[in-house]
Amino acid sequence: MRLTLSSALLAVLLAIGMAPWVPVAFAQQQYRTVVDKEVGSFFQQPNGFPYSVYGIFEGPAQSLDLAAIRVLYTHFQQFAPAEDTEIRGFPYSQLRAYEAQQVAEGKPPIYVTATYAGKSRPVLFSWSLHLVNGKPTTPSNQWQYAVNVQDPRFIHFWINHYMQPMMGTYQNMPNFGPNLSFQLDQCDFILDLYGVLDDNNNFVAGVPWDSPFPQTQADFETAVETFFSQVKTLAPNLTLLPNIGSQATPSHFPQLFANVGGGLDEDLLSWYPNPGAYTRNLWYTQNFQYFPWLGSQGRVGDLRAMVPSGDPNALPTAFIVYSLLKGPNFFFAAGDTHSNNLNPDTWAGMKALLGNAKSALQVSQPTAAGNGYRLFWRNYEGGIVYLNWTGTMQTVQLDNQDNYYDPTGKQVSQIQIPDASATYITTTLNTLPAPRISPRYAFPAIGPVSVTMESDTPGATLHYTLDGTTPDSSSPTYTGPVQLNSNAVVQARSFYGTASSLPSAASYVISASTLPAVQFTLDSDSGLQGSYYPVLSLSAIPLVPVTVTYSVQNGTPITGSYTFLPGMTYAILPLTTSSSGTMTVTITSATGAALGSPNIFQYNPANGGSEVTVTINPTNATLVAGQQQTFTATVNNASNQAVIWSVDGVTGGNSNTGIISSAGAYVAPTALGSHVVTVSSVQDPTESASAAVNVNAAPANGDFSMTSSPSSATISAGQSAQFTLTVTPVGGFHQVVNFTCASPSNVTCSASPNSVTLDGTNNVTLKVTANTTAQIASASMPPPRRTGVLLALSAMLLWPLLAIADDRRWRCGSMLTALVLALGLLTSCGGVKTSGNPASPTGTTGGSYNLTVTATSGNLVHATTVVLTVN
């Protein structure tokens, strides 16, 4: 289909040397993996239709489809004292009490403070104050106080004392279904929205926060990213749906929201009907970027449209904007301005005519009026949707390959779209609604999976295929649930008389195992005492109910069991730590599932386990201007190994202090002087380690630097690892450099070549090889024992079990065991003798080893260290 823009717009675009249009560069996920009902609710109630029609619903519990997504309201970056008494409110006072305990122990506070006029003051979220003439008008117990969202103490508290208790209640309600998500409100991550109150109760925005809290907008965004990343690691059962607002740096959206389950939008018509330049630019740089990206990732989107009454263009416009933005797992929450959803029949006809998206959102280049003055469109199976924000009337000339119809049903060859207007064209007039296919899965499932298909057209006949091809009237007729025993892409269409629907499609991955594996998502964690909720996961959606039993040491209850809800892949165990000591939780048995790994989880409460420690290597370095030095960090007793590098207190350093990368590669500045490189734990920012750096003038004949890639490697005993060493001349250095490698006694390392000649300009690389040896038990030679026959019998007894093993990982391990037993038969029959005393192993033992490569040229000596971890 050819798209022709108006001659005026085309002339403007060509005059400024830009192409007429560009696509938004997000590839589209193909199949819907959530409930096949596109009706959404965002604090709205149904008006003339039952709750069972909803695919996603936010608000009080109702009789929804069991596959629908239920949403509860939450937030995470600021809290008010009044929440203590609210239903599902955050335990504000409990966190304050925990903070006071931590401060008394010499640790930093959790609630954010900022110093203004010589006083450290609490940081408040401005929206919660309802400022009038700069002063709060809301009661003080409703003021929201900011917290340090990247602090691991807060993250653990938020998960285990706020979120998981809600999930724990919900997962014991089988009538509610398996899909619970959480809205995160107030997700406008802009530092200037926060401030303090001065001595006269006036709000002062933009006051720098005290250390160790984020200092800049970039630091604040990093803190938010850390929060989302840690929640996904520690509590993957929590699906978070931020209510997405404006961001200070819209291009950072994919980084900010990389670890959330989707997003919400409060009003698709917030710009309607007359958007100004500011609104167009805001929407183009934010909404038209955010939601297509979420859709391309297969995330959930719930987009509300508050449709004004008496305007016949408002609802079609809202649906077109939704169609421009949506992904396969989106929901349309069309409603009035009084919290009532419109009957979905009012927009179902447009949905049936258009079908599924065939392209990403397409966007023209801007006109001279501004960055948001653009034409937006998107191709669908049954037509095209358009939104004109160019500032002028646009004429779209259609090709002659198909018949095209405007929304009134009139056949057209071109359409005219006024500014700030939306419209669509279709290729047919009589299209039935596409059938619904269920269940929809985002995970592999244990087969057989029973697939049902349903049409909203009374008397319609459904035809389907299982290979992803589009069905026609000669394809198999749906008469009842279809059983899938292998991977399939199901497509279905409705037929009634001469009318038919566009296809509906669903993809299924059938697990090769007959049972899912059940395991903990982590093997260990550490944090505050009290409530903790280890997370269980299933490797596939089960065919039959899965029940696990477990035992607990140094915690309560000491035993328990849980049965997963149908369709659920995550579950939590509500536990309480003892007064001291490490809590150990063991899955003792499972029905309907095989035991996976890890099946043992350990939790170290704050006063019962090891604290996080950080070390840095080397601890000092002498460099010349521009020379590079790689530092390595080791974080102990932390589930999150991430670190933050800084120089002289500046994250990442700068041109004055020297630059350091996220991998610890430091480049000295041009100015001479002394600096401090610091590495801090992300899990516990109070734990850090530092190295002293002296930047000296280069010798008269120059100098050289060297770096290693990678700086660390992990291998098994008996294997080798290679590191590439890059040597860089500094100041025209052109001499011979000799290399030696020092290592512990049970690891050998060497450099090849062991000397290079630099030419003053070009880098030279060489290989450093580290060798380990496999562990072998030493043997003495007493009289032989007849162990071979017993080993052979054990192997023969075990072998039939391997043939029916359900878990492939267990099977592989068991086969290896049987092979070892069989080898035992051969070696024992051959007369190999074993000592009656414990054998002393030889070879490289497991652990981390520092290998130091030293480069020497005359009086110049430089060294770099690589870390080798042996399993």
For the sheet with most strands, the description reads: 5 strands, antiparallel
Terminal CA distance reads 59 Å
* Overall number of strands: 67
The assigned structural class equals alpha+beta
Helical percentage: 10-25%
Strand content: 35-45%
By DSSP (H or I, 4+ residues per run), the number of helices equals 11
Strand order of the largest sheet: 1-18-19-20-25
Rough outline: globular
Rg over CA atoms, rounded to whole Å, is 32 Å
In the predicted model, the low-confidence regions spanning at least 5 consecutive residues are: 1-28, 777-841
Nearest-integer average pLDDT: 86
Please give a structural write-up:
Helices cover 16% and strands 36% of the residues. The N terminus is likely disordered. With 871 residues, the chain is of the alpha+beta class. The chain has a five-stranded antiparallel sheet with strand order 1-18-19-20-25, covered by helices on one side. Strands 26, 29, 31, 32 and 33 form a five-stranded mixed sheet that branches. The chain starts with 6 loop residues before the first helix and ends with a strand. Helix 10 runs antiparallel to helix 11.
Question: What are its keywords?
Answer:
871 residues, alpha+beta, five-stranded antiparallel β-sheet, five-stranded mixed β-sheet, 11 helices
Structure in a nutshell:
This protein is α+β, with helices and mostly antiparallel strands and 871 residues long.
